[in-house]
Specification:
Blueprint: H1 8-36, H2 39-50, H3 55-63, H4 72-88, E1 92-96, E2 107-111, E3 120-126, E4 137-139, E5 142-144, H5 148-167, E6 175-181, H6 191-194, H7 196-203, E7 207-210, E8 218-219, E9 225-234, H8 252-267, E10 274-283, E11 285-290, E12 293-297, E13 306-315, H9 318-332, E14 340-349, H10 356-371, E15 378-379, E16 399-400, E17 407-408, E18 416-418, H11 422-436
Parallel strand pairs: 3-6, 3-7, 7-16, 8-15
Antiparallel strand pairs: 1-2, 2-6, 4-5, 5-18, 9-13, 9-14, 10-13, 11-12, 17-18
Helix pairs in contact: 2-5, 2-11, 3-5, 5-11, 8-9, 10-11
């Protein structure tokens, strides 16, 4: 059977209808997007696409500057890098030092000129990391290194959204303040000082956006707070053959076990409430705790007379926190024979309690995302997030978090950030800021 090669003309004829459909669909999509975005917003999108390649080199620079919270010099060095970038945009920048005894570097603030247009917006980021030492490396669209996703990429979402607005002259007459803290991972004590400036900026703002890591196509309208607790149990020591009798009673370890089990039985089913006894030491001599390190000595034939337990408590509201503490105190007060116990609590980071104003702000973000063609943005379950800086001020004004970069393994070796999603995240933020500040 004789065969004939297919000519280019016949091939084109075959695929022409498909190509025409593709062109028509593309034009319709572009037209639909153009109808949803203003001319200024389309310019923001174009700018961000044109400068997406600039992100990785700057990310490499900050990631390779080691900045665990207590490394004051390292945190300040990263602050200087960001400060130079904000200076280029004509923002007024300043460094807020913390008292030397706090052993914290301080915070970077960058502000537009005090305009009169639109909402007064506060943007939050942080420079410090939990770990140190893992240098930047790029594998495809993944950037690895300490601090990539938590949260240098979030800081870069802020920076490049502002760069896009600045390039189009859209920062003029706006009221935007950026605060990038140097101790989010371990707030300086007292927090009245380390978060005093943040609270002051919140009181002169209309809303706050925070750029902790994004999770899928969601944003954060609520996140749990965290606090710590210490349980100290005492008993009567003596020969173990006399335990449970009237002279020695149950001993300190049994009493500690009773208390912890009652915590679990009474409280573990409550939504958004968790409590974790993280370290426990007990025995009949040399029982001591120094921070997270404990020591104890005991013998199998001696009734233990001292136990120390340290743990954390996480909650969605101050009311939930106080109710849990009250129940824990009540459980502690019911002692086994010849034992005693006390529990103390220390506040850490408050809860960002969900509220309607936060939902309204999420709706504005979602509308911007939909208009850009990126789909709806849903609220992340507050149980999926730990504590964060925004909670120090979220009770004062509408608040939204989780607007930063995407990635994984934060607070662990192998931390990574997704560069491919950055243009989308930056566009979403830039358009939202544009609409908030008109």
């Amino acid at each position: 059977m004789k065969t004939h090669p297919i000519s280019e003309k016949s091939t084109m004829k075959k695929w022409l209808p498909v190509l025409l459909v593709f062109v028509i669909v593309t034009l319709c999509q572009t037209s639909a997007l153009a109808q949803k975005l203003s001319a200024d917003e389309q310019k923001l999108v174009t700018y961000i696409d044109a400068h997406a390649a600039d992100i990785a080199p700057l990310l490499e620079k900050v990631v390779n500057t080691e900045a665990p919270t207590q490394n004051v010099a390292g945190v300040k060095a990263i602050g200087a890098i960001y400060r130079a970038e904000f200076d280029k945009l004509g923002l007024t920048t300043k460094w807020i030092d913390m008292p030397a005894e706090m052993k914290r570097a301080g915070h970077l603030v960058a502000e537009t000129a005090q305009g009169t247009q639109g909402k007064r917006v506060l943007l939050l980021g942080h420079m410090d990391t939990v770990l140190s030492g893992e240098k930047f490396r790029l594998e495809g669209t993944r950037a690895y290194g300490t601090g990539t996703s938590d949260m240098q990429l979030g800081n870069l979402v802020i920076l490049y959204a502002l760069k896009a607005l600045h390039a189009q002259g859209l920062l003029k007459d706006t009221q935007i303040a950026v605060m990038i803290t140097g101790d989010e991972e371990a707030s300086g004590k007292p927090t009245a000082i380390s978060r005093g400036d943040m609270i002051a900026y919140a009181k002169r703002s209309d809303l706050v956006l925070s750029f902790e890591g994004a999770v899928a196509n969601t944003a954060t309208v609520g996140r749990r707070g965290s606090s710590s607790w210490t349980l100290e149990v005492t008993g009567v020591t003596g020969h173990s053959s006399r335990i449970f009798g009237p002279q020695f009673g149950g001993g300190a370890i049994f009493e500690a076990a009773r208390i912890l089990n009652q915590f679990y039985e009474t409280l573990h089913g409550e939504k958004y409430l968790t409590f974790n006894p993280s370290v426990i030491v007990g025995g009949s001599s040399d029982v001591a705790m120094n921070g997270a390190t404990g020591t104890a000595t005991g013998k199998t034939n001696v009734v233990p007379d001292k136990v120390i337990v340290k743990g954390d408590l996480r909650f969605i509201s101050e009311a939930q926190k106080e109710a849990a503490r009250a129940k824990m105190r009540e459980i502690v007060a019911k002692h086994l024979p010849r034992t005693d116990a006390k529990i103390t609590f220390e506040d850490g980071i408050p809860a960002m309690t969900p509220k309607p104003d936060n939902d309204a702000l999420l709706a504005q973000l979602s509308r911007a995302s939909e208009d850009l063609g990126f789909g709806k943005v849903a609220a992340l379950d507050p149980g999926e997030r730990g504590a964060g800086d925004i909670a120090f001020i979220s009770h004062l004004l509408p608040a939204l978090d989780g607007l930063g970069g995407k990635g994984g393994n934060s607070h662990a070796p192998g931390e990574w950030g997704d560069l491919e999603s950055m243009p989308m995240l930056i566009k979403r933020t830039a358009v939202l800021l544009y609409r908030l500040t008109r």
